[in-house]
Structure formats: C-alpha cells, structure tokens
C-alpha cells in the first residue's frame, strides 16, 4: 500500500499512480471547482500524486505549485502538466504538508486530496499550511471518509485548533463503482 499509494515508488507506485489518476480524478476536479479559483489566485496543491487536480487548477489559476514527497509522482505530474510547466504557470517541487518550502503568506488557496491520512503529524501539517496562506486565504481538504478517524467533527476541531476559521464540511459521493464517499472541508486563514 505504501509503495503504491502512500509514497508511490517503483513498479507498484506506477500502478498506483495509474489507478489514482482514474479513480480519484472526479474528486480532484470537484475540490478544485469547490475552491472557486480565479486567475489571480496562487494555488498550492499538497500531495498531488499523478497530477489530475494540478492540471485542473492550472486551467483556472495563473500560478500553481505542487508539492509531493514522491519523486515518481512529481515526474508523473510534470508529464501530465508539461504545457503548464513550460508556460511558467506551474512548478512541481519536493515537499510535504509539514514542509512545503513556500514563503510565509504566499498563497491564496491550498488544496489537499486523499493525503491528510498520510501526514505523520496532522497539527504540524495544518500549522505549515496556515503559515503559507495569506490572511483570508482558503484551505480545502478531501479525504476518504472511512479513513478519517473521528469523522468531520475531528477534522473541524483540528483545523480550528490550528488557527483556521469558518470551517465547514460536507460529504461528496464521487461517481463510479469503486469510489468511496469523500469527506471535504473548507476553512479560511483569518484576516
Ligand atoms: C493516496 S495518494 C493521493 C494522490 C492524489 N491527491 C489523488 O487523490 O489521487 C497520496 C499522495 O500524498 C503524498 N504524500 C505522502 N505523504 C505526504 C505528506 N506527508 N505530505 C504531503 N503529501 C504526502 C504521496 O506521495 C502521494 O502522492
């Protein structure tokens, strides 16, 4: 599971990347749409995997940064988004939720799909994402509901403890036989 989906590498990682690019595509695009991006937004996508959400964000915003600790996934995302990278709209960098490598208050929107369950320290990840968001910036998270311990209440409590405001969550049913219910959340960094 780790090699295929957790921090994809090797042959299993290539297979996992293909499965994620199909199975999670609707969720990735749905969360980008829920963010209501404008061309002025600087967007950070954390744990982008094969890059479906990155590509969708790159068609809507003029600056998009992806960070993922898997070199295999960074390569896959750069291939998928080659035109956006070549035009300077997108950068794909090594990083994690807790260490994004981005300056303070430098992004308008942070997106994370199907990876908070992999962060070794949820509080450290949320603190880092709050640091890089500008005041008023928004955080959007999607996670497989069955993998979120404590459900929506625990997630909302964690983002509130990290200093986010206006947190609200909802459930989303992705299309497809294999897809499972997503728990999604939106919150803002207070101005
Ligand atoms: C299950 S995949 C999800 C990929 C994609 N967002 C999707 O839904 O198809 C998890 C991704 O998160 C990355 N990841 C693992 N640990 C991470 C961490 N601590 N911070 C950010 N991303 C991480 C993995 O390398 C992998 O690309």
TrEMBL record:
Q: Which residues form the Methyltransferase type domain?
A: 45-141
Task: Name the UniProt key words of this record, in alphabetical order.
Answer: Methyltransferase, Transferase
Q: Give the highest taxon in the source lineage.
A: Bacteria
Tell me which InterPro entries the record gives.
Answer: Methyltransf_11, Methyltransf_Superfamily, SAM-dependent_MTases_sf
* Listed GO MF terms: S-adenosylmethionine-dependent methyltransferase activity
- The transmembrane segments are none
A Gene Ontology biological process noted in the UniProt record is: methylation
Q: What is this protein called?
A: Methyltransferase domain-containing protein
């Amino acid at each position: 599971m780790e090699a295929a989906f957790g921090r994809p590498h090797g042959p299993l990682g290539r297979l996992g990347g293909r499965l994620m690019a199909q199975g999670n595509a609707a969720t990735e695009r749905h969360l980008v749409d829920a963010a209501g991006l404008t061309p002025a937004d600087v967007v950070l996508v954390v744990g982008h995997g094969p890059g479906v959400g990155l590509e969708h964000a790159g068609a809507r915003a003029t600056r998009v940064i992806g960070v993922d600790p898997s070199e295999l996934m960074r390569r896959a995302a750069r291939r998928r988004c080659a035109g956006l990278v070549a035009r300077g709209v997108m950068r794909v960098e090594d990083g994690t939720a807790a260490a994004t490598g981005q300056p303070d208050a430098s992004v308008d929107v942070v997106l994370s799909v199907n990876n908070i369950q992999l962060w070794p320290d949820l509080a450290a990840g949320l603190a880092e994402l709050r640091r890089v968001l500008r005041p008023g910036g928004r955080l959007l998270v999607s996670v497989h509901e069955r993998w979120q311990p404590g459900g929506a209440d625990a997630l909302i409590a964690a983002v509130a403890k990290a200093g986010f405001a206006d947190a609200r969550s909802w459930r989303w049913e992705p299309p497809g036989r294999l897809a499972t219910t997503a728990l999604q959340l939106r919150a803002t960094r207070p101005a």
